[in-house]
């Protein structure tokens, strides 16, 4: 069987797709071609729904028993096919856009956020032993207990920030 599975690009009718293919994927494609052409005499698949599972297990066993030289021919073919594959520019643009969007604001900031920006350092100085979660709880309780004047001050800041957000996005 080992000599039978020698891979030569002239024997294979492998389609050059848009995606990268591994040596094993090419080997499975090769075995499937041979099976469909009734050239794999050692493999008799039952006519059931799970016949392709059995086929894949058979391919896995064949691949595991192949020598490195035999696998190398499939690897060479994979390298040849994958050298032709070009990543479309659209995907690169999408990746770049995702990188750019990581730093942009998703929504305008709330008044409480601006309050936290101002008072976080102050509370950290007062209670240096507090963890971040405890500081957040303290900021929340202080915000609830804050006077209307303080809340209105931060609501005005948040409103101006909202206007900037709408202009930019």
Automatic annotation (TrEMBL):
Its main location: nucleus. Belongs to the HMGB family. Pfam families: HMG_box, HMG_box_2. Residues 105-169 form the HMG box domain. SUPFAM superfamilies: HMG-box. It comes from the Eukaryota. Residues 105-169 bind DNA. SMART domains: HMG. Keywords: DNA-binding, Nucleus. InterPro entries: HMG_box_dom, HMG_box_dom_sf, HMGB. This is HMG box domain-containing protein. One of its GO terms (cellular component) is nucleus. It is found in: Nucleus. The keyword DNA-binding applies.
């Amino acid at each position: 069987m080992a000599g039978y599975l020698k891979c030569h690009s002239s024997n294979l009718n492998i389609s050059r797709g848009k995606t990268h293919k591994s040596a094993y994927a090419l080997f499975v494609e090769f075995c499937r071609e041979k099976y469909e052409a009734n050239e794999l005499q050692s493999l008799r698949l039952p006519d059931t729904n799970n016949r392709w599972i059995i086929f894949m297990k058979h391919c896995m066993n064949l691949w595991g028993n192949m020598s490195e030289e035999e696998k190398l021919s499939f690897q060479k073919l994979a390298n040849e096919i994958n050298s032709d594959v070009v990543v479309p520019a659209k995907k690169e643009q999408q990746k770049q856009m995702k990188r750019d969007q990581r730093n942009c604001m998703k929504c305008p900031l709330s008044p409480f956020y601006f309050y936290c920006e101002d008072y976080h350092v102050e509370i950290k100085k007062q209670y240096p032993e507090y963890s971040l979660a405890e500081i957040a709880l303290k900021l929340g309780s202080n915000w609830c207990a804050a006077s209307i004047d303080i809340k209105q001050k931060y609501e005005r800041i948040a409103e101006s920030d909202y206007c900037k957000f709408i202009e930019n996005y």
